[in-house]
User: Fold these one by one.
Assistant:
Number 1:
Amino acid sequence: MLGLIFLLSISPIQDTLHLRVLSINDLHGAPSTRTYSFSEGRLVGGVAVLAATMDSAEAECNCVTIRVAAGDLMQGTLQSNVVYGKSIIEALNALELDVAAIGNHEFDWGVDSLKARMEESRFPWLAANVFYTDTGERPEWARPYTILEAGGIRIGIVGYITSSTPTIVRPIMVEGLSFVRGAESLADILQEVRTAGVDFTIIVGHAATFCNDDRCGESIQLAEELSTEIVDLIVGGHDHRVAATEANGIPVVEAWSNGRAVGVVDLYKTRDGSVSHSMHIDTTYADAVQPNPAVVAVMSEYESLIDSMANRTITTLEHALPRDGSQYALGNLFADAIRAGTGADVGLTNNGGIRADLDAGTVTYGELFQVHPFGNLLSRVTVTGAELIATFEHSLMRGRPRVHISGATVTYDSERPAGERVVEVRLSSGEVVDPAASYILAVPDFVAQGGDGFPLSELPRETLNADVLDSIIALLQSDGSALADLDRPRMIDRVAPSLD
């Protein structure tokens, strides 16, 4: 499906305003090209290729063009993280980005670091639905909107960030802030933008576009709550999907993640005020463009800083470790490493902390860092058996596990109501967990602090001066016996065990 054109409306007619919007999202600090399972050996992505793809899309249109990004731009690679995103800001400046939405991972290094990166950016960072909890006012550093003027066209752009942010970053990083869900949080700003006399209004939001049987992401929900009289386009992100669709008549676009694609949306406005559109997704194949030299120059400087660290060999894998299904070997490796690094009874890791697959063959530190780039520390939490079971219940709220565990096997029933799905928890010793007994649960500090909503933040805990990634490296470099049991699921659905 990638690379195909999705035409969503009539062709443009004469005597119109024509605006092309080029969008990216969830870059996650990805500076370099690489192959993917879909690319059949062709190199994809990298910020220099991303810039060149945008250059090409702008040149072929010969129309007013803007470049926007829907958040989570910096966190995720050594080239970015060792300088707290400074390298990616310089690359995005060279790419001539016009505006960015703030994403949840922009808070990973704290508000002060975010503000420092904002000061270095030649483009504004936007979020209209962030407020101080105590006053209800918007933070002075979070601009709610901006108005761009180009080629006689005025474009109002409003920022939005997922309301789930407080549960998916370390709580201390967003302390004192509230992230309000829905169109009502934007109502005053959208009115202000309309009053300013813009030709097009666009929401650039770090908010999901994916829908399943019972729910849709916040970008789609925003569209359903608004109308084409208020908003002409929503650019989404956060869930790393490809989307070129409509909701409530409003076009919604999302261009995958890690620089693998660019969203291309053409908006046309006639003299009578009616707006039509077309859109497609361009995959960023490196052999289709000449890398943007300005971006190449920026990234070359930073890549030289981390070459020796990134290229250090950690181990060699006989088989690939992909993220496949709800229970997979790579997740079990994480959980085993967390437990081994703490001497706990049970280890647990949230799946959101596992960000990439590991390929077979030589594994370098740089590759492993992309799998877990967050710098999480190990925490030991003292729990009762009942609290341990409640933790597993939380991980099963959506019917399938969102964690991997070590030192135990959890049998659950996916057809039971949420909160009642755990059937049995048995330790690796064979002992069934006693609700009244005391146990040590090892988790990343993000989880211990209540991240992802886990009910652990009020329990006794000790955070160690030991990094999750270092524990994974130690296990990978062990004698090999520790890797023998990774394929066995530790959370098993008694209704449909083959699905796990």
Number 2:
Amino acid sequence: MENIDELKQFLADRSKNIVILSHRNPDGDAIGSSLGLYWLLKNMGLEAEVIFPSEYPAFVAWMPDADRIIICDLEKEKAINTIAKADIIFCLDFNALDRIDPMEHAVNESKAFKVMIDHHMYPEGFADSVLSKTDVSSTCELIFEFAELLDKQQLIDGKVSDCLLTGLITDTGSFKYNIYPSTMRVAASLLERGANNDFIQEEIFNSMAEKELRLLGHCLYNRMEILEELETGIIWLTKDDFEKFDIQRGDTEGVVNFILKMKKVRIAAFIKEQPTIIKLSLRSKGDFSVQELATRYFKGGGHKNASGGYFYGSLKNCMEKFKKAVKSQMELEKQI
């Protein structure tokens, strides 16, 4: 990690204003890494403000001081002013500034020392110091490594551990995919430091509202298509579905993973029709890269087995394009 000594000097100055940012539609890794770093800095005697572009899902609302996070969509002036005053900006779980719209301009214009900690491919060069690795489970895993680089691993207490374990659990589907040897070593260390795995698993996976369970049933029974010849499954939701089920942020978390429970399916897509855009969540098993598919056809990206993208147009055209994209990607794989 370049400029680590300069960063240590910055952090040694208690008067510095520190801001922690993560991406729009924050998931468990985004909020886990942000609050994990927030509590690590607190244990170092430092204060920080955490800012997200949009609201976080309800299943992570239990996390310590989650209610102090500034949501730019709700408090834009406060968010932008806080960024403008920052001396240090940590950018977590994203590596391109368009992921934090509408805060992109404020960060780009800021003279603060910028730190990127992220595990996605193709990082942009906007940060002064970068900890970027793709062969880790999550940004939370990198926050653990960052604490070691600062020689502050002894300050990873129960609160920090709960936050970081949340990101490991959510970004690996409870340790089912995207696993590396380092992932299990970090998870073990977090448990030793007081992380409450039983509580976290219960909050993440067993706290669904009735409407969420009914929505899941609707997805699986009425909105699922299996393409056996492509080993692919698709679940889609229309704008009418969003209105009928009063779908809010986080209500559809994990739906795409149910498709991969079928042995004959190795590629899964969850396609959501929204007012002005269609969003895709993509998952895969084995060697098929949904990251390449998302990048090539849907202006997206992510990880080999978990990525996302978007499409402008009709839901029907998006689904047709996705099917053609999978077929083309499979043909490319055969040629390699």
